[in-house]
C-alpha cells in the first residue's frame, strides 16, 4: 500500500530561517524559526545513544532539518550517515545545513535523500536505499496518526504526523528491511506509541531496551527511548528512567551525555 502524498508546503522564506549552534558549536543547523519541526532535546537525546566508536553506515529515518544526523556525526567520526526526509523544504534545509562552512568537517560523511520511506521497495532502491544496507538506524519519527491532534502549521503537521494509523508498524517494517542482521535501531517516541512499537518490533528486532524519559521526578513519562537489535531474540529490558534534570539537560546540550542502549 502506498503512503499518501505529503501536503504541499512552500519552502520557508530566508527571514523565517534561523541558524543555530548545537553541542557547544560543534555543528550548526538551519531550521524554521517557528511553526516547523525545530530541533531540541529529543534529537540530542537520540544522538547521545550513538557510541563514539561507532563505524559503518547509519540512516536517520525522517531526518527533518538534520539535527540527529549532524549530532551523531559529531559524536562518531567513523560513522557515515544518510538523512532520509520526505518533506521537500525540510530536505532542502538539511542539504543547506550540511553545506554550511561550520559543518565542512562533517559534510563528507553526510548525504540527504528526499524520499517517502513508506514508498514501495523499488522506489527506495532507486533512491539508493538498498535492503540490508545499514549498521545503525536512528529515528525521531512523526508522533501523531492522521486522525489525531493536528498542527495549525502545514509544515509542522507534515513533520509530526505519520500518514495513517498503523504507520509506525510499517515504519519499523521498512527499518527492518533496510538494516543488516545485527544492526541496531534506536528511536525516541511518545509513550502512547508503545503498543505499535512492540507490534512493529515483533519478529524483526529483539534485545529491546526501553528508557522512560521524564521531565521531573514523579512526573509521567513524556518520551520513550527505545533501542533494539535486528534479528536478536534477547528479551525486553526496561532500563532505569531518564529524568531531564538540570545536569542531564546540560550534558545533552553540550554533547557530553552518554546513554547506553546495549
Automatic annotation (TrEMBL):
Cross-referenced Pfam families: MTS
Keywords: Methyltransferase, S-adenosyl-L-methionine, Transferase
InterPro entries named in the record: DNA_methylase_N6_adenine_CS, SAM-dependent_MTases_sf, Small_mtfrase_dom, tRNA_Adenine-N(6)_MTase
Protein name: Methyltransferase small domain-containing protein
Methyltransferase small domain ranges (all copies): 45-148
SUPFAM superfamilies the UniProt entry points to: S-adenosyl-L-methionine-dependent methyltransferases
Gene3D superfamilies tied to this protein: Vaccinia Virus protein VP39
Single biological process term from Gene Ontology: methylation
GO molecular function, one term: N-methyltransferase activity
Amino acid at each position: 500500500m502506498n503512503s499518501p502524498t505529503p501536503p504541499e508546503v512552500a519552502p520557508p522564506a530566508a527571514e523565517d530561517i534561523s541558524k543555530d549552534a548545537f553541542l557547544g558549536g560543534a555543528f550548526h543547523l538551519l531550521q524554521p524559526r517557528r511553526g516547523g519541526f525545530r530541533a531540541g532535546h529529543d534529537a540530542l537525546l537520540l544522538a547521545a545513544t550513538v557510541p563514539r566508536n561507532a563505524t559503518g553506515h547509519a540512516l536517520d529515518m525522517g531526518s527533518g532539518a538534520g539535527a540527529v544526523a549532524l549530532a551523531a556525526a559529531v559524536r562518531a567520526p567513523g560513522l557515515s550517515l544518510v538523512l532520509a526526509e520526505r518533506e521537500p523544504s525540510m530536505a532542502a534545509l538539511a542539504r543547506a545545513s550540511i553545506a554550511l562552512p561550520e559543518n565542512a568537517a562533517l559534510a563528507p560523511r553526510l548525504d540527504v535523500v528526499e524520499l517517502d520511506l513508506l514508498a514501495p521497495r523499488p522506489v527506495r532502491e532507486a533512491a539508493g536505499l538498498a535492503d540490508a544496507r545499514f549498521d545503525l538506524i536512528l529515528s525521531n519519527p512523526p508522533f501523531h496518526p492522521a486522525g489525531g491532534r493536528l498542527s495549525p502549521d502545514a509544515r509542522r503537521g507534515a513533520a509530526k504526523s505519520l500518514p495513517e494509523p498503523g504507520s509506525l508498524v510499517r515504519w519499523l517494517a521498512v527499518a527492518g528491511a533496510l538494516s543488516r542482521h545485527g544492526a541496531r535501531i534506536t528511536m525516541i517516541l511518545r509513550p502512547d506509541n508503545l503498543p505499535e512499537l512492540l507490534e512493529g518490533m515483533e519478529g524483526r528486532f529483539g534485545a529491546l531496551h526501553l528508557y522512560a524519559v521524564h521531565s521531573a521526578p514523579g512526573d509521567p513519562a513524556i518520551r520513550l527511548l527505545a533501542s533494539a537489535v535486528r534479528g536478536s531474540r534477547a528479551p525486553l529490558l526496561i532500563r532505569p528512567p531518564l529524568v531531564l534534570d538540570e545536569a542531564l539537560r546540560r550534558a545533552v546540550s553540550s554533547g557530553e551525555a552518554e546513554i547506553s542502549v546495549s
